[in-house]
Amino acid sequence: MAKRVTKGFASKTERALMDKLKKCPICDEDIVRVKHIKTSSTENSMKFTENVIKVCKCNKSEIYK
Ligand SMILES: [Zn+2]
Q: Is position 31 within any domain?
């Protein structure tokens, strides 16, 4: 289920900010952006929420259980 998003000025700014966070200042490891899809089901439908999370040594163990 790919969604086409129009890239505008806002997303460019966002990317520039994100690129600055490539290394974690705490553990000094590279931060990897991982797409995390959360499914939640209600009574008659399923909902998919797509999140991009940043993973480094600090939270790796929490995310990859
Ligand atoms: Zn870290």
A: yes
**Contact 56/29 with Cβ under 8 angstroms?**
yes
What is the count of structural domains for the chain? 1
**How many Å lie between the centroid of ligand 1 and the Cα of residue 57?**
5
Q: Which residues surround ligand 1, an ion (CB under 5 A)?
A: 24, 26-27, 56-58
Residue 47 lies in domain: 24-63
Each residue of 5-50: pLDDT tens digit?
666 666 766 665 555 558 999 999 999 888 888 899 989 999 999 9
* Nearest C-alpha neighbor of 50 from the set 5, 13, 16: 5
Q: What angle do CA 60, 54, 14 make, to 5 degrees?
A: 175
